[in-house]
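USER: Please consider what follows.
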Amino acid sequence: MTDYNSKATIQRKVAANLLKYIVEAARHLPSLPPGQCVRILENACSHGVNSVDFALAVCQAVSDRDTSAPISFTFNDLPDNDFDGVLALISSSAVADFNPTLHTLGKSMYSPLMEPGAVDLVYSNASLHWIGSLSVFAEEGPSQPKVANQAQEDFAAYVSSRHQELRQGGKLVVSFPGVPDGESGMNSCYPDAFKRVHDIAAERGAASLAWMQKYCNSPNYSRNRSEVASAFSDADWTVDLMELQDIEEFGASEYQEGRITLDDIATRTADMLSSIYHNTFTSMWVEYGGLEKDQAEELMKVYREALQQALKEPKTLRVYHLWVIVATKK
């Protein structure tokens, strides 16, 4: 838990950007009868690095409206997530002063999670670009159409399920990587870096170039405007905000002030990606790539070194494209 929470640098920056939208949504939820619980769902809470700030802000916004309103949080992620760590972080923070009820739910966010009309506010940070099924990376390997189709199925299922689970007037607030129209959604945040990682790992003899190209791609997809908008057009939503924003690389301000170098940023980013992809990649390499567990772990070490080298080669700061969406159930 500590490793991920300390290295999820980009996720923390995205979360800081999302926080104000979550607070605004919490402030404008429909009024509830006295004593009725305000129910919150966080999708893809991961190890809780951002859950504390989100939950604290929501508690304060709800309390500002009604100090007696009970609050309930459900923290959702995949079944193998460290939910004990999430609850420990929340319970030891200022969130505990509001005495909320805490629940966890280990299940894919692309599936139904709650009873219809059971939730007032849903939010998710830097997660909806992840592919729900890694089978698209099996057999002949990933392709733009195949991954795009899976990503569309995932997103449509997410939006539809959350619409059913929100009560009338409930809010959905999400942020995730996107791309401008006309750009590829595969490996979109680091397209050149992944290509170089393939080459470097093959040059070191860790795996063949063809194997790396097939099994070492970012397991996510960044959607363009039409791909995002289509999921909301089929449901009864009011879309309050759908904006593709630019966000500078984590550490950009420190670099501009001369306190760190571009190589420092590359090392941070490599640590972050290696931490995030570790379980996904090693599992995928064992299940689909024919490696034993110890072989996958050894390759992951080479991957991290290759990624760090690849990220240091372009001497420039990156800018990420980020969807911010706020929608209300009609």
The longest strand covers residues 166-177.
